[in-house]
Every structure is written in C-alpha cells, then in structure tokens.
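INFO batch 0412 | record 1 of 1 | parsing
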Amino acid sequence: FWTILQAADDEGIDAVTVHGRVVINSYRGKADWNVVSQVKQKFPSLTVIGSGDLLSAPSAWDALRDSKIDGITIARGAIGNPWIFSELKAYFDGGKYESPAIKEQRDVILNHFELVCRLYPDKKAVRYFRKFLPGYCKYQPQRKMVLLSLMDEQTSEQLIEKIRHFYQ
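INFO prediction complete | emitting tokens
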C-alpha cells in the first residue's frame, strides 16, 4: 500500500481516495481512519480523500476533522438516502437540517424504483430494490412498520401501492 502510494506520489498524481478497510479483513469491520490520516501525514502535498463508514453528517464531519484530510466521499451512506448530501451541507454550514417531506420521499422512492424496473423483470426488480428500502425509510415516522410492510411485497404493483399508501 505504502509502496504504491509513494510511486503514485513520485509520478505526480494530484489526489488519492483511501478507504479505511482492507482486503485481508474481507472489507468487514469498521473503517480504519488512522490509516487514512497517516496517508495525509506521510504525503502532505497530496490531496487525500477518505471513505468508509460515513453514514451520517456527524460521522462525516468527525472523520474529516479528526483525520485532517482534504475531503471525503460518501458511498454506502447514500444508498437509499440521497438526502445525506443536503444533511451534510447543512451540518457543514452550521445550520439545521430539515428532513425531507413525506411527498418528496415518495417521489424519490418511486422514481428510483421506476428506473430499477426498466433494468430488471418485475420480481427481480422488487427483490433488488429491497436493499434500498432501509435507507429510504430512515425519515418515515413509522419507520420499522413501514419497512417491514414494504419488504413483504412481491410484485412491483404491490410495492408501488404500499409506497403510495405510506408516503401520502
């Protein structure tokens, strides 16, 4: 890892994105932000962008501040939660974040599901979309009940009907 980074720096790269997990751990466990921070310490002129376990605005802020790197990238934290970027902007600007309105949530969820339905046959689309539902339900006032109900649906028509019902 360090040899590759040194060679890249010697070649004059402008930036590097570092994820705090390694293959040897099968990408499990918590991201090691100490390693991300060490990259910036060893290569101070390199723009270092960190990634890993940034699932909320506070966790992203803490990682950025504590590691003293130049930036962050959001990956898993945006799955089913496209609002994380608005939340981050409000948090970084010192303002208060307002959760998205139920109707906005509905529109985003339905639009995303429609796009998934263009790629996959009905039942496969429903099964695939389940990975996004926990994130999408984050701001739903009856989160757990709604999530369990949506996860039960087997067809796109059923899922769309339930989404419309719970996100009126």
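INFO post-check: The beta strands are 15-19, 47-51, 71-72.
INFO record closed
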